[in-house]
């Protein structure tokens, strides 16, 4: 379960932003998670509550925005949406896909006090 380490990273990022932005409490964290990022949103929510206890994120709401996976198909020369790696192109059935998006996880926005 690497989601615990990911949540610790989120806390570090937010604490750095708190020092820059001079805020003391976070009410909501919006997090973008790509479909190909290997992050389980359910596990992330569970770990978020545990990791944020006694931090400026304690009690904060975690809003997850799921992003689709994207790939360039070498077979039909088009950008296609994919839900997992190694699946065939939904347009032509080729397996020659180059992933172009949906691998990331990032803190998109914070609501602070």
From TrEMBL:
It holds the Pfam family HypA. InterPro entries: Hydgase_Ni_incorp_HypA/HybF_CS, HypA/HybF. The keyword Metal-binding applies. One of its GO terms (biological process) is protein maturation. GO terms for molecular function: metallochaperone activity; nickel cation binding; zinc ion binding. It comes from the Bacteria. Transmembrane segments: none annotated. Keywords: Metal-binding, Nickel, Zinc. Gene3D superfamilies: 3.30.2320.80. The keyword Endoplasmic reticulum does not apply. Zn(2+) binds at residues 73, 76, 89, 92. Ni(2+) binds at residue 2. Involved in the maturation of [NiFe] hydrogenases. Required for nickel insertion into the metal center of the hydrogenase. Belongs to the HypA/HybF family. HAMAP family: HypA_HybF (MF_00213). This is Hydrogenase maturation factor HypA. It comes from Bradyrhizobium oligotrophicum S58.
């Amino acid at each position: 379960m690497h989601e615990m380490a990911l949540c610790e990273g989120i806390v570090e990022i937010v604490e750095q932003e708190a020092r820059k932005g001079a805020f003391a409490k976070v009410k909501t964290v919006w997090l973008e998670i790509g479909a190909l990022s290997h992050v389980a949103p359910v596990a992330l929510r569970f770990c978020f509550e545990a990791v944020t206890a006694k931090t400026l994120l304690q009690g904060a709401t975690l809003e997850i925005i799921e992003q689709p996976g994207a790939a360039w198909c070498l077979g039909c020369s088009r950008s296609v949406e994919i839900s997992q790696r190694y699946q065939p192109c939904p347009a032509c059935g080729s397996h020659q896909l180059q992933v172009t998006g949906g691998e990331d996880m990032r803190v998109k926005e914070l609501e602070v006090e």
